[in-house]
């Protein structure tokens, strides 16, 4: 998570600094619709790369998706800690699938 946290902090700094020529700043200037469009595009490209079975391409598209998702998070005021908290709660529920699918044969 250190790389993700560092990228998040860099993106946050770019939002506040409005650095000339920065792609990240461009995304913020264009607004949420543009950011979400890029998240959607990168999601689709990741799926296609995975379907094509080329690991290097898939990894690259995953990185692009993570970057654009982080931009969206910064834009929407969602922190890495917010996401980690939900992931932690979900991890605590791990292993509940068998309990969930248990059938009471007497009913």
Automatic annotation (TrEMBL):
GO cellular component labels: cytoplasm
GO terms for biological process, alphabetical: L-histidine biosynthetic process
Top-level enzyme category: hydrolase
Enzyme Commission code(s) on record: 3.6.1.31
Coiled coil: none
Primary location class: cytoplasm
Reaction catalyzed: 1-(5-phospho-beta-D-ribosyl)-ATP + H2O = 1-(5-phospho-beta-D-ribosyl)-5'-AMP + diphosphate + H(+)
Localization terms from the record: Cytoplasm
GO molecular function: ATP binding; phosphoribosyl-ATP diphosphatase activity
Keywords on record: Amino-acid biosynthesis, ATP-binding, Cytoplasm, Histidine biosynthesis, Hydrolase, Nucleotide-binding
Pathways involved: Amino-acid biosynthesis; L-histidine biosynthesis; L-histidine from 5-phospho-alpha-D-ribose 1-diphosphate: step 2/9
Homology family: Belongs to the PRA-PH family.
PANTHER family per UniProt: HISTIDINE BIOSYNTHESIS BIFUNCTIONAL PROTEIN, HISTIDINE BIOSYNTHESIS BIFUNCTIONAL PROTEIN HISIE
Protein's name according to its UniProt entry: Phosphoribosyl-ATP pyrophosphatase
């Amino acid at each position: 998570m250190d790389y993700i946290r560092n990228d998040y902090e860099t993106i946050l700094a770019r939002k506040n600094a409005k650095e000339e020529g920065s792609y990240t700043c461009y995304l913020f200037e264009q607004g949420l619709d543009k950011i979400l469009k890029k998240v959607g595009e990168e999601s689709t490209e990741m799926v296609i790369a995975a379907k094509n079975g080329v690991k290097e391409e898939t990894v690259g598209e995953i990185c692009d998706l993570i970057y654009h998702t982080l931009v969206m998070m910064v834009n929407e005021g969602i922190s890495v800690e917010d996401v980690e908290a939900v992931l932690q709660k979900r991890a605590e529920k791990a292993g509940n699938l068998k309990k969930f699918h248990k059938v009471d044969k007497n009913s």
